[in-house]
Design goal:
With 302 residues, this protein is mainly alpha-helical. Helix 1 packs across helix 4. The N and C termini lie far apart (47 Å). This is MEI1 protein. InterPro entries: Immune_Signaling-Apoptosis_Reg. It comes from Erithacus rubecula (European robin).
Length: 302
């Protein structure tokens, strides 16, 4: 089925949302819901389809071109298509790298546009933000280096719209600039305050991947970002709702992040003891799977 569906996608235009959106979803789930052996073949099939990749390029570009006069509370068909496109490309990035699959057509993205989608947001639906963050995580995990993807502006002279490397730190983090990193972190913190479960999971995962990327590139920059005092205020905000327990997945994963990077000004020994005490008193069988996994990671890190 991958052959006819991917070929069908390649014959469509981005405006053919009724046909494209379920088709891209089918391709996405075909990658994720199959055996490792079949997954490698599926990646090869999709990456050999030049028409499909050209279509995906157009879909990604529509993220910056489509600007409805007002965003409805529900997800429009155009936004749903964009979500499917970003998620599929993020998956292709990861699996192409994993299997070292041959690439017949590259995709191009403007890193500044991707970052601004999260930093500025412009009333983008939550699911679209989550999809773009998944793509950003894939970029960070591959150090912005992929044979499938060309980052617009790389290997060119900096322009007026691109942040100029102002320090050795910026050079080490290329193609990111430290100012972009701080803007992204602040935006992710603000998104966490919304306390939307899907959004919270995506934001914390993006923060984890971002700090991991920084730590590999420049340990001082990573520790500086992880120890920002604003993180402590964020934790108090997350714990200020009706459920004040530390045993919330996003809180536990944030705590794990701060323990990992030794941010003692954010999480103290007292709070670590509180979490362990809560875990000891909790009925483990009643905890959600997300909470159980987050708690295991936290205890292992401690």
């Amino acid at each position: 089925l991958l052959f006819p569906v991917s070929n069908l996608c390649g014959k469509c235009r981005p405006r053919d949302t009724d046909l494209l959106q379920p088709s891209l979803n089918f391709l996405y789930w075909s990658l994720h819901q199959t055996t490792p052996c079949s997954q490698q073949r599926a990646v090869a099939v999709l990456l050999s389809n030049v028409s499909l990749l050209e279509l995906l390029q157009k879909v990604l570009e529509c993220t910056w071109l489509w600007s409805p006069p007002s965003r409805a509370a529900y997800l429009s068909s155009e936004d749903a298509l964009l979500c499917s496109g970003w998620l599929l490309v993020a998956s292709l990035l990861l699996y192409q790298h994993r299997y070292n699959t041959e690439v017949h057509q590259t995709l191009s993205v403007d890193l500044t546009e991707v970052l601004n989608a999260v930093i500025v947001r412009n009333k983008k639906p939550i699911l679209l933000l989550v999809s773009i963050m998944q793509f950003l995580r894939a970029l960070l995990r591959q150090n912005f280096s992929s044979s499938l993807l060309v980052i617009a502006g790389q290997n060119t002279a900096p322009s007026a719209t691109q942040p100029q490397p102002s320090s050795l730190q910026d050079t080490a983090l290329h193609p990111l600039a430290m100012q972009q990193v701080f803007s992204l972190v602040v935006s992710l913190q603000n998104l966490l305050v919304h306390k939307d479960l899907l959004l919270s999971q995506a934001v914390v995962a993006c923060l984890e991947t971002l700090v991991e990327y920084l730590y590999v590139k420049n340990q001082d920059a990573a520790l500086h970002v992880a120890s920002q005092p604003w993180h402590r205020f964020l934790l108090f905000t997350l714990l200020s709702g009706g459920q004040k327990s530390f045993l919330q997945p996003e809180v536990l994963r944030l705590m794990t992040l701060f323990v990992r990077y030794q941010s003692s000004n954010i999480i103290s020994q007292k709070e670590i003891s509180q979490i362990i005490q809560e875990a000891a008193e909790a009925n483990i069988a009643e905890l959600s799977e997300a909470t159980s996994c987050a708690l295991c990671l936290f205890l292992s890190q401690v």
